[in-house]
């Protein structure tokens, strides 16, 4: 999940990120881990993952950013979910991260010149690091490694997508689906499903005959 805003003077977008990732370079293994990230100048000089620099303030003693999940969904097997919420404290102005209704920590408002009042964009989905070794697209999987059309129990799922407005009313987000490498990864977006709410299935296998 990406929450962002940018000013009119092109000084760089302000971004908060939260979710799960597999990052062997950062963590030294292939475990899925809870992560946060931030930048106050469009990924130029400020920002970092987790607690690698001064920025995000963890307050929970039970949920640690950078920690590996001890349970996760498997294809055609048990399904587990983690509820993510990023909200702005109207008094302090800080941006709080909650997982499964538990406060994990916050991004101080002072980190973001253009996120002091509100966010202009919210994005949900997946991304990979494409190094293009030997001139070809990476074979890195996204999500479960299955394409969106495989659906529930196979493809990665983000459900109950909502936006918290100033009046605290949760409203379904209309959404504008966007995919950069359609032969490598894809998504299916559905708004207002009776069971899943606004949701999307996404993922893919990376390098294949349609993804070079």
List keywords for this structure.
1 helix, 4-stranded antiparallel β-sheet, 5-stranded antiparallel β-sheet, 212 residues, 2 domains
What can you tell me about this protein's structure?
The structure is a single chain. The chain has 212 residues and is mainly beta. It folds into two domains: 1-123, no CATH class; 131-212, no CATH class. Helices cover 2% and strands 31% of the residues. The protein is built from one helix and 14 strands. The protein has one helix at 24-27; strands at 2-5, 14-21, 33-39, 48-49, 57-58, 84-88, 95-99, 102-107, 121-123, 156-158, 162-164, 170-172, 186-193, 197-203. The strands form four sheets. Strands 4-3-2-1-9 form a five-stranded antiparallel beta sheet, with no helix packed on it. β13 and β14 form a beta hairpin. The protein is globular, with a radius of gyration of 17 Å. The chain starts with a strand and ends in a 9-residue tail after the last strand. The relative contact order is 0.15. The mean pLDDT is 93.
């Amino acid at each position: 999940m990406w929450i962002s805003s940018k000013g009119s003077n092109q000084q760089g977008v302000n971004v908060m990120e939260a979710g799960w990732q597999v990052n062997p370079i950062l963590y030294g293994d292939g475990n899925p881990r809870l992560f946060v990230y931030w930048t106050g100048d469009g990924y130029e000089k400020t920002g970092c993952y987790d607690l690698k620099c001064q920025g995000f303030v963890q307050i929970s003693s039970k949920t640690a950013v950078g920690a590996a999940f001890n349970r996760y969904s498997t294809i055609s097997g048990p399904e587990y979910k983690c509820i993510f919420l990023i909200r702005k404290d109207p008094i302090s102005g800080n941006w709080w991260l909650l997982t499964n209704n538990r406060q994990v920590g916050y991004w101080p408002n002072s980190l973001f010149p253009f996120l002091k009042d509100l966010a202009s964009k919210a994005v949900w989905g997946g991304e990979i690091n494409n190094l293009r070794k030997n001139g070809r697209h990476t074979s890195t999987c996204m999500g479960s490694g299955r394409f969106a059309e495989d659906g529930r129990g196979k493809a990665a799922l983000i459900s109950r997508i909502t936006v918290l407005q100033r009046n605290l009313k949760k409203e379904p987000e209309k959404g504008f689906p966007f995919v950069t490498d359609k032969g490598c990864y894809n998504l299916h977006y559905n708004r207002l499903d009776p069971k899943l709410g606004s949701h999307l299935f996404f993922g893919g296998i990376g390098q294949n005959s349609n993804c070079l």
